[in-house]
Amino acid sequence: MSFAALERRLNYTFANPALLQQALTHRSHSARHNERLEFLGDGVLNFVVAALLYERFQNIDEGDLSRVRASLVKQSTLADIAQRLDLSGYLRLGEGELKSGGFRRPSILADAVEAILGAIYLDQGFEAVRQVIAGLYRELLDKVDPDTQGKDAKTLLQEWLQGRHLELPQYQVVCIHGVAHDQQFEVECAVPAFDIHIRANGSSRRAAEQTAAGQVLEQLLPLSPVDIKRRQAAGKARQQAERLAQFKATHGRAAQGESR
Amino acid sequence: MSFAALERRLNYTFANPALLQQALTHRSHSARHNERLEFLGDGVLNFVVAALLYERFQNIDEGDLSRVRASLVKQSTLADIAQRLDLSGYLRLGEGELKSGGFRRPSILADAVEAILGAIYLDQGFEAVRQVIAGLYRELLDKVDPDTQGKDAKTLLQEWLQGRHLELPQYQVVCIHGVAHDQQFEVECAVPAFDIHIRANGSSRRAAEQTAAGQVLEQLLPLSPVDIKRRQAAGKARQQAERLAQFKATHGRAAQGESR
Asked: Which UniProt keywords are given for this protein, alphabetically ordered (chains A, B) (predicted)?
């Protein structure tokens, strides 16, 4: 197989194509597989992405740098890069993995990307692999918002509301389906200011809360500032109406109590 | 303060000594502190140690490479390197940290080592910092035994016994002192083949087991092959004697049972 198209997409030509061949070889295929290269590539990728973020974001602290980096080197991001490189067709897998669709599996794709980076480091050294990584990540880095990238939905929702001085979301388990080892949690996320109540399922309480928070965010984020103010106002009015109703109910009961 | 002695120990001279100054500045001292440099240095250290191990150990798999690397970049190893560099006297700490002995704290020392490596990368690039790291780790790498480095005491003890086809150690909680949030566990580790029974304490069951296993290893590792054979034989004889006694007791009881 010719590597020309892949090398073009990587913007890199191997001096020793056997290294690329090895990087594309899963352990199910043969003994000369890519796992050691993946170890090396994981290291260089983590470092180069750290250095790229360090240069680009001069004013964010190391906690934010770590969070953003984690989101850029995680398996799903690497699997996306593998798709862009059209790696599937180049992978060398054992028969079992082939039949079970291993060439589409995110872990196998992500590992192969790392292994290719390790192979480039061995092939032509640090500066070569730094340039390849910078090229692969150019668009992703342009889109990074260090305030939000890599944060989970619950954190983003909380920060969104806090930034507008609004009441925090409330999470509640509505019900739990299934038996001990295979439970499904149904959770409600309520945002009082916007009168939003959204339910979601998950295999853990936390997972269900994250899904619900994400769906709430999908409703909140597209809102225009005017919308937000209107819905804040509607929420406040509703709360006041509820308080009034509650007061009347209590007052009514008290009056009944007195009349007895 | 002159950095000459420190630079000599690092075998590196900064083009821009302000970077070294910043690397030695704890966040308690001033706003231009070392935490971002530490983020960068952590990345380059992890990668360079990975690359050094990859080159040196051609035949170990990525799992072992990861384990050995983790032991070489962990806080206590970095704090040892800081001691060798005599970093304490150069650290710039806030008053509170100074008074509480921050210049001796392993986390502060380890972070400063990483920050210095980040500073060297910014100062003169990858090849410069690679050489400094290779120099700092030369002796440590010469001593690495990839079969054992970074393994915990329980794992080492188990492997030592398995390698000699001996019965595995048995762990038992002897007693638990203290109340819920502040418990001390006393655990016994027994190695039947050597008739060893060692007790140790720890703030968790796991910690106590590790300490006990470590003390058992301290008894086993110095043994000569002859000693080992003799103690294996003694252990076997003891086991046989116990089985015989048990048989007699059962037989005795059975006889008594029959005679009733």
From this structure: Cytoplasm, Endonuclease, Hydrolase, Magnesium, Metal-binding, mRNA processing, Nuclease, RNA-binding, rRNA processing, rRNA-binding, tRNA processing
For A218, phi then psi, to 5°, come to -60, -30
- Give the number of other Cβ atoms within 10 Å of residue B197's Cβ: 14
ipTM for the assembly: 0.79
Nearest residue in chain B measured CA to CA from A33: B61
- The DSSP symbol for A16 reads S
Q: Please tell me the distance from the alpha carbon of residue A68 to that of residue A46, in angstroms, as a whole number.
A: 11
Q: What is the pLDDT of residues B6-59, one digit of tens each?
A: 999 999 999 999 999 999 999 999 999 999 999 999 999 999 999 999 999 999
CB burial string B111-148: b at 16+ within 10 A, e below: bbbbbbbbbbbbbbebeebbebbeebbeebbeebebee
Residues B12 and B120: their CA atoms lie apart, in Å, by 8
Tell me which H or E stretch contains B223: none
pLDDT of A195 above 80: yes
CA distance B145 to chain A (A): 18
Nearest to B39 among A43, A54, A127 (CB): A54
DSSP element (H, E) containing A100: none
Q: Using CA atoms, how far apart are residues A125 and B48, in angstroms rounded to an integer?
A: 12
Buried (b) or exposed (e) across A72-88, using 16+ Cβ within 10 A?
A: bbeeebbbebbeebebb
Amino acid at position A203, single letter: S
Task: In whole angstroms, give the CA distance from residue B65 to residue B51.
Answer: 10
| Structural domains of chain A in order of their starting residue, each with its CATH number | 4-143 (1.10.1520.10), 153-259 (3.30.160.20)
Chains A–B, number of C-beta pairs less than 8 Å apart: 56
> Could you tell me if B82 and B111 are in contact, meaning their C-beta atoms sit under 8 angstroms apart?
no
Query: Measured between alpha carbons, how far is A17 from A94 in angstroms, rounded to an integer?
Result: 21
Q: How many helices (H) and strands (E) does chain B have?
A: 11, 3
**Residue B115: closest C-alpha in chain A:** A62
Find chain A residues with C-beta within 8 A of B54's C-beta: 36, 39-40
Instruction: Inform me whether the C-beta atom of residue B61 falls under 8 Å from chain A C-beta atoms.
Output: yes
Q: Give me the residue from B39, B62, B126 closest to A62, CB to CB.
A: B39
Report yes or no: B34 and B26 within 8 Å, Cβ to Cβ: yes
Distance CA(B66)–CA(B73), nearest Å, equals: 11
